[in-house]
Design goal:
This protein is α/β, with parallel strands linked by helices. 42% of the residues lie in helices and 11% in strands. Helix 10 links the parallel strand 7 and strand 8.
Length: 477
């Protein structure tokens, strides 16, 4: 807990600094916000791959179930993670999706097309239609493909949950099925997938090693990770193999656990090439601090692994205090996207940058707006969030430009554009915005207290540590 407290302290300084109405936070000069020139996109701003997801339901659908399965305690229900959320609620404008993808990105990750619940229709039947369509699109447009995902306990097929519930199979039968499944899927795309997320979200939520409630841990045992990486390596010795996890950006204990798991695999002669930080950052001002992220990325790079920021998005309305994206939310989001891109560059040597993958194109199709669990958190009434770089009409938001500048390693400060006004001005918060930031801070503090067990005094103490860290970086408060 002390380690969590230390790094959360570091993350809080930007939030409180922004609350000071008479302070202007300076930045380096940034590029002007021009419309993206023809032929230039995010991929052209970076010297490493920039990716996005092949959105669920685009253009075909293999399974009739359109959501991650395996609800609480592995009991599947239609609404466990939002019934049919990835098909029915998504409003894809396919020509725009395709045009933006080709212009802006050079790497593609399937959102759902290769998740086990989507393609494993029965124990002996796999539906590859949507995955094949994605591969064809990627090959036609010279996109790198990052395979996602082989083992994930929130994507367990409905039939498998029923088998486990009714004790149909022995441990050996589960192991045989998973080996055959991984071998079949990876072999089908051998030479086409640049990498695979072999295991996803297997760590205990707040650290402490593997999650013993993980589906595959329960039916096979704790060595399911070793076996999955061995089977994937045999099926495609050239594809890079990753373990992918959430929360490691801002929970150092959990990051330590994931590095230890990877190191243990290597000590046994099992190949693992990289570690993925998902990058779902629901409170970006607190959890998206440049210095904390830089240090987290560097820890993985120093351990000798490729680093993938694999599912990046920055919701700004997770508690639901607004119904439309406010100017302050735009300002926060732009700044933090810029910080995150620069932290990745600062923390990861060029040879180990597997890339940054964004988790969606327009806000309306983000999983924050299509999955029930996120609606349940919006206790203040807001009915949507705004986590991505394009708005509901596929127009680039201020965050797009902040992120693009960050990919060029150009630092931005608290730039304050109007929602779609491209002129940047360096201004302090006015009274209205300061009150909104105070409210944002109070809600964020409540979130930290309830989810991480911190007291108000502990959060206040974080500021002193943040000042010390800034001083070490040669900066003043």
């Amino acid at each position: 807990m002390k380690e969590i407290q230390f790094w959360t302290m570091l993350a809080c300084f930007l939030l409180l600094a922004a609350c000071t109405t008479d302070t202007i936070i300076e930045s380096n000069e940034a590029l002007p916000d021009a419309a993206t020139p023809s032929g230039e996109g995010l991929k052209d701003a970076a010297d490493f791959p920039i990716g996005n997801i092949w959105a669920a339901g685009h253009p075909t659908w293999g399974n009739t179930k359109g959501t991650d399965l395996g609800g609480p305690n592995n009991q599947w229900t239609a609404n466990a993670f939002g019934a049919l959320s990835t098909i029915v609620q998504k409003q894809l404008q396919l020509p725009l999706e395709d045009e933006l993808f080709v212009q802006e990105f050079n790497s593609i990750t399937p959102e759902v097309a290769l998740k086990p619940h989507n393609i494993s229709i029965s124990p002996d039947s796999i539906d590859f239609r949507e995955a094949d369509a994605m591969v064809a699109f990627a090959e036609a447009n010279n996109l790198r493909i990052h395979g996602h995902v082989l083992v994930f306990d929130k994507s367990v097929p409905e039939w498998a949950l029923e088998y486990e519930k009714n004790d149909v199979w022995t441990e050996q039968q589960w192991e045989d099925w998973l080996e055959d499944y991984i071998t079949t899927v990876v072999s089908r795309y051998k030479g086409k997938m640049a990498a695979w997320d072999v295991v996803n979200e297997a760590g205990a939520p707040l650290g402490g090693g593997l999650n013993p409630d993980y589906f595959w841990y329960k039916v096979i045992g704790p060595d399911f990770i070793e076996k999955a990486f061995v089977w994937a390596n045999v099926a495609d010795p050239e594809a890079k193999l990753f373990i992918n996890e959430f929360g490691t950006e801002f929970i150092p204990v959990k990051l330590r656990d994931i590095i230890n798991i990877a190191d243990d695999l290597r000590s046994k002669g099992i190949r693992i090439d990289g570690i993925g930080f998902q990058g779902h950052i629901p409170l970006p001002v607190i959890m998206g601090d440049f210095y904390a992220l830089k240090k987290a990325f560097k820890r993985v790079a120093d351990a000798g692994y490729l680093v993938h920021l694999s599912e990046l998005d920055l919701p700004v309305n997770v508690l639901g205090y607004s119904n439309d994206q406010t100017e302050l939310q735009h300002r926060i989001q732009r700044k933090k996207y810029n910080d995150i891109a620069r932290a990745y560059i600062a923390g990861v040597p060029a040879a180990q940058r597997w890339g940054i993958t964004l988790w969606g194109i327009p806000d309306r199709n983000s999983f924050y707006n299509t999955v029930k669990i996120w609606f349940d958190l919006r206790i203040l009434g807001g009915d949507r969030d705004f986590p991505l770089l394009w708005d509901e009409d596929y127009a680039a938001k201020p965050a797009y430009y902040g992120f693009r500048n960050g990919l060029k390693n150009i630092e931005e400060g608290w730039l304050y554009p109007n929602i779609y006004d491209t002129q940047k001005t360096m201004v302090a918060l006015d009274d209205k915005e300061s009150k909104e930031m105070d409210m944002f801070f109070e809600h964020s503090k409540s979130f930290l207290m309830s989810h991480y067990g911190l007291s108000a005094s502990e959060i206040d103490e974080m500021i002193n540590v943040a000042k010390a860290n800034l001083s070490e970086e040669g900066l003043s408060w």
